[in-house]
Amino acid sequence: MANHILKGKKGIIFGALDEKSIAWKTAQQCYAEGAEIILTNAPIALRMGAINQLAKACGDAPVIGADVTSSEDIEKLLQQSMEHFNGKIDFILHSVGMSLNIRKAHHYTDLNYEFQHKTFDISAMSLHRVLQAAYKKDALNEWGSVVALTYIAAQRVFPDYNEMADAKALLESISRSFGYHYGVKKKGELYRPNQTKVDAVNDAWDKFDSKEVYDIFSEQWLKECHRVLKPTGMTDVWDETLQYLAEWKKEIPDLPEINFDIEAEQTFEEIKDLKPLVYRKIFENEELFQQIVLTIFPEKKVLKLLLNYFESKETSIYKTLSEKLKILIV
Ligand SMILES: NC(=O)c1ccc[n+]([C@@H]2O[C@H](COP(=O)([O-])OP(=O)(O)OC[C@H]3O[C@@H](n4cnc5c(N)ncnc54)[C@H](O)[C@@H]3O)[C@@H](O)[C@H]2O)c1
Fold it and tell me: Which residues, other chains included, contact 262 with Cβ-Cβ below 8 Å and sequence gap of 6+?
C-alpha cells in the first residue's frame, strides 16, 4: 500500500530494461509513492522499446537515452532533467551493471582486459561519472540521495561472480570516497549500507598544513608512545596514572570523593562483564588495587557484589578471580 512518502520528490532512475530489472520495480514503486521520475538507459537498450510501457505507467515519465560510459551523455541527462523538473534532483538510482567477460564466457583466470576495461567503466566508473557531473552542476538537493547496487562478492570470494566482484569493489570504494566529498559539500552525513554512520577523519588535531608538519607530528607522537610503552609494546601507563592520582589528591584535596559505592548495584551491573583478563591484571597489581580500586570503591560494596558474582561462575578463571579478590578485600 502506497503512503506517498515520496510526494514532491524528483528522481532519475537508471537501468530499467524489462520487467525483471530491479530498476523497473523500483520505478513503479517510486511512482506509486508519489515521486516524479525520469527513466534512462543506454540508447541501444531504449531501442528494445519496453521502457516506454514503464514510462507510460509512471505518469508519462520522460525517457532520456544516456550511455553511462559517456561523460557528455551524463551531463546532458542531468541538464535535461533539471530543466524538466525545473530545479534540482532529490534522488538517483544507479542500477547499472554489465560484464563483457561473463557474456563472452571468459573465466576469471582467463580475462580479456579490453573487455574488463569496459566492464569497470559501465559497472563502477559510471557511478563516479554520474556523481562528478551532479557535483559540478550542483544538481542534487540538500539531503538528496544516490543509490547504487553492489553485491557481497565485493567483499567475499564468490568465484562465479567473476570480474564483477572487482567491479563491485570499485563501485563500493567510489561510493565511500565520493560520498565523503559530497557530504562535506552538502554538510550532510555518510552512511554505510547497514546504516552505520561513517565517522571520517576531519578533527582539527588531525589536519596538517603540509606533509613536513605531518612528519614532525608523527615523529613526536611515536617517540611519546615509545616512552610510555614496555619493550613488548604493551602500555605501561599505570605508574604514570598512579603518580597523577597521588599528585591530584595532594594538590586539590577539597575535591569530592569519587565513591562508586553510592550506586553500587548500578555500577556492578556496568562492570561485572568486563573481560576476566582485565580483572586479573588489576588484582595482580596490589599497589593499583590499594590506591585506585579502594579509592573508588571505599565501602567495598561493589567489590563484594563482584565477589558473589565471580563465585557463582563455574569456569576456572572466575574461581581464580574470586580467590584473589577475597584476599584483597578482607
Ligand atoms: N539481480 C540481482 O540479483 C543483483 C544482485 C546484486 C546486485 N545487482 C545489481 O543491480 C543492478 C541492476 O541489475 P538487474 O538485476 O536489475 O539487471 P539488469 O540487466 O536488468 O540491469 C542492468 C542495466 O544496466 C544497463 N546498462 C548496461 N550498460 C549500460 C550503459 N553502457 N549505459 C547505460 N546503461 C547500461 C542495462 O541496459 C540494464 O538496464 C546491477 O548493478 C547489478 O549488478 C543485481
Answer: none
Q: Is residue 219 part of a domain?
A: yes
Per-residue pLDDT tens for 22-46? 999 999 999 999 999 999 999 999 9
Q: Looking at the structure, tell me whether residues 130 and 18 fall in a common domain.
A: yes
Give CA–CA dist 190/200, Å, rounded: 9
The answer as to whether 201 is a domain residue is no
Q: Ligand 1, from 54, 69, 95: best to mutate by most atoms within 8 Å of Cβ?
A: 95
Residues 150 and 269 in one domain: no
Asked whether the CA dihedral 312, 315, 319, 325 is positive or negative, the reply is negative
In 287-318, which positions are buried (b, 16+ CB within 10 angstroms) versus exposed (e)?
Answer: ebbebbbeeebeebbbbbbbbeebeeeeeeeb
Q: Which CATH number characterizes residue 73's domain?
A: 3.40.50.720
Using the 3D structure, point to which of 131, 156, 186 is the last residue of a domain: 186
Say how many Å lie between the CA of residue 99 and the centre of ligand 1.
10
Cα(97) to ligand 1 centroid in Å equals 4
Nearest ligand 1 atom, CA 20: 20
Query: Is residue 299 assigned to a domain?
Result: yes
Using one digit for the tens of pLDDT, what is the confidence trace for 260-297?
898 899 999 989 998 888 898 899 888 888 888 988 89
pTM as predicted: 0.66
The distance in angstroms from the start CA to the end CA of the chain is 67
Taking CA atoms only, the protein residue closest to ligand 1 atom 9 is 149
Count up the domains in the chain and report the number.
2
Residue 319 lies in a domain: yes
One-letter amino acid for residue 214 of the chain: Y
- Smallest CA separation from ligand 1 atom 10, residue: 149
Query: Which structural domain, as residue segments, surrounds residue 129?
Result: 10-186
C-alpha grid cell, residue 14: 537508471
